């Protein structure tokens, strides 16, 4: 089960013509494979998971949910990688550090 603090981690999401698929999840990190509209892999993203509190937007109420980084938050809450190997290497390093703490 893909849960972070009792909330489901998105298995897939779409942003700006790209579809991102969850590859690996652990502790508070998630790696996504990014594909373009033709289904070609264009890169990988590593996100530090956070919780979005309940809110109301455009007259609709939303419950607490897992929050992934937005475009402006890359470099602080998420990082891009050109290869799967480099994304997973960084993911594993971060997981190891968190387990030690």
Task: Provide tags for this entry.
101 residues; two-stranded antiparallel ribbon; 1 helix
Give a description of the structure.
The protein is α+β, with helices and mostly antiparallel strands. The protein has one domain. The chain is built from 1 helix and 11 strands. It has a 5-stranded antiparallel beta sheet with strand order 3-4-5-6-11, covered by helices on one side. A two-stranded antiparallel ribbon has the order 1-2. Strands 7-10 form a two-stranded antiparallel sheet. The longest helix has 17 residues, at about 85-100. It is globular, with a radius of gyration of 14 Å. The two termini are about 25 Å apart. The model has no long low-confidence stretch (mean pLDDT about 95).
- Structure classification: alpha+beta
Rounded to the nearest angstrom, the radius of gyration is 14 Å
What can be said about the biggest beta sheet?
5 strands, antiparallel
Question: What strand order characterises the main sheet?
Answer: 3-4-5-6-11
Topology (elements, then pairings):
Layout: E1 3-4, E2 7-8, E3 12-15, E4 18-26, E5 29-35, E6 41-48, E7 50-52, E8 55-57, E9 60-62, E10 65-67, E11 78-81, H1 84-100
Antiparallel strand pairs: 1-2, 3-4, 4-5, 5-6, 6-11, 7-10, 8-9
């Amino acid at each position: 089960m893909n849960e972070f603090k009792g909330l489901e981690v998105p298995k897939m999401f779409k942003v700006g013509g790209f579809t991102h698929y969850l590859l690996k999840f652990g502790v508070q990190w998630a790696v996504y494979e990014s594909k373009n509209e033709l289904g070609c892999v264009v890169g990988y993203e590593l996100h530090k998971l956070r919780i979005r509190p309940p809110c109301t937007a455009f007259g609709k109420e939303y419950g607490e949910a897992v929050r992934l980084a937005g475009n402006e938050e890359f470099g602080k809450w998420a990082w891009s990688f050109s290869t799967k190997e480099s994304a997973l290497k960084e993911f594993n390093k971060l997981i190891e550090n968190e387990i030690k703490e």
